[in-house]
Design a protein that fits this description.
This protein has about 220 residues and is α/β, with parallel strands linked by helices. Helix content is about 40%, strand content about 10%. β4 (about 115) and β5 (about 120-125) form a beta hairpin. α4 (about 160-175) packs across α5. It comes from Streptomyces chartreusis NRRL 3882.
Length: about 220
């Protein structure tokens, strides 16, 4: 009995110590979470905003065409939300129709970039802001969305110029945020959890695209 009681007392002391340590760790964790949340919200304080220049692009090969403010959320990425993913889309329409849709406040969706068949790239939302493109809040906050003009059932829409221009863009995004060039971090819209979209579809050549991204990733900007 005595030995058994001593064992219980020891367990009690260990348990109390673990509780104290665990409580301290939990408090520290809460402090970190609170600090992170404040970091995400700092720019909402009146008069505080990250410097921006009207018409400025994040990718030198793009032309600025602003999306409606209703189709994205102001942020301070990657300081408030880390960027670790690129999401590939297909517009299911022409380049011009996609631009028009993204400029429509009733559309409630837009990607950061649109790539045309001839390789022309329009940037419609700054990478530091959250675009409503993936249909999943977490994925929106952590990714950059790239639309490609065309239709998923028309492989001829995915031209050499489009693949090459898009691959260079994705390579620069990956370099900027240290995103691994692999299929876990460069995904299709269809792969976003909870989505009902099927793009970029079965005719998008992922093997070719990833080869081009890797090649562009090792080429100086």
């Amino acid at each position: 009995m005595g030995a058994r009681r001593a064992s219980k007392d020891t367990d009690r002391r260990i348990g109390r110590r673990a509780l104290i340590v665990g409580g301290a760790a939990a408090a520290a964790g809460s402090a970190v979470l609170a600090r992170d949340e404040l970091g995400r919200l700092w720019w909402r304080v009146p008069g505080v905003e990250k410097p921006r220049k009207e018409g400025e692009v994040d990718y030198a090969g793009a032309r600025w065409v602003a999306a409606s403010d209703a189709n994205w959320r102001r942020a301070d990425r990657p300081d408030d939300y880390g960027i670790d993913m690129v999401v590939v889309h297909v517009t299911q329409g022409s380049f011009d129709s996609a631009v028009k849709a993204f400029q429509d406040p009733a559309h409630k969706a837009a990607s950061h970039y649109i790539v045309r068949k001839d390789g022309h790239i329009a940037q419609m939302i700054r990478e530091l802001d959250v675009a409503y493109h993936a249909g999943n809040r977490d994925y929106n906050e952590r990714s950059v969305g790239i639309e490609h003009a065309g239709f998923v059932d028309r492989p001829q829409d995915f031209t050499d110029e489009m693949y090459e221009a898009s691959a260079r863009l994705t390579a620069r995004i990956c370099a900027r945020y240290d995103i691994p060039v692999d299929r876990e971090h460069i995904i299709g819209h269809v792969e976003v959890p909870g989505t009902d979209h099927t793009d970029p579809g079965p005719h998008w050549d992922w093997d070719r695209y990833m080869r081009l991204v890797r090649a562009a990733r090792t080429t100086p900007a």
